[in-house]
Amino acid sequence: MEQTNYTMVAIAAVVCLIIGGVVGMQMAPTETETIEVEVAPLAGTTVQLGYIASTTVALETTDPLVKDIMEFDYNAYSDKLGYDIEFEYLIDCADSQAAIHLEKVQGFKSMDVNIFIGGGWSSQASAALSYCTDNDMLMWSSSSTSPLLALEGDNLFRMCPTDVIQAPAIAEMLWSHGIKAIVIMYRADPWADGIYNFLVPAFEAKGGVVLESIRYAGEAMEFANYLQAA
């Protein structure tokens, strides 16, 4: 009988502990649960990007390339990732002129378009580079190759190698054909200047002689006067 009483007391104590624990859990302050939801920072917006074709000829192939392929792929990938973002390219043309290219870049800036593909010619990239760097714009170029534009800390991102190795190759080619003296006639722009600046020392290092250097205007169509000077 005594053992039974002890057993009943023990059971009652356990029941009290269980009830007390349950009541305590229910009455305890509820912890705040933080749920992080990832939201794309540009959700619901249209991101405009620029594209400046170097010439009117290039413009003919630019529109289908940019609109039908690039822009389409950007938006398809954005949809696949579940981002509520639309990409739109604004296309313009530099008409073969570095000054016009700069004007187009400034026009993009006025529209708050700060990333663009352009500077297809090194002269065009050079004309716009300082403006891009000063105004926090990013210029992507697929074909600018002048070594003179290999600058640290600028805002030009080039997707092709420079012409640093082209000049030594030209010097080697000339020397291999037995040419010991040359007259250099080259275009007055950063692309040709870059090659010239590397070609002269490379050729002279082999023992070659540069007899004359004639720098003609980039927009020149007649060369009689330049040839007479040579």
TrEMBL record:
Residues 84-211 form the Receptor ligand binding region domain. Keywords: Membrane, Transmembrane, Transmembrane helix. Its main location: membrane. It is found in: Membrane. The keyword NAD does not apply. The keyword Membrane applies. Gene3D superfamilies: 3.40.50.2300. The chain crosses the membrane at residues 6-25. InterPro entries: ANF_lig-bd_rcpt, BCAA_transport, Peripla_BP_I. Coiled coil: none annotated. This is Receptor ligand binding region domain-containing protein. It comes from marine sediment metagenome. The lineage of its organism: unclassified sequences, metagenomes, ecological metagenomes.
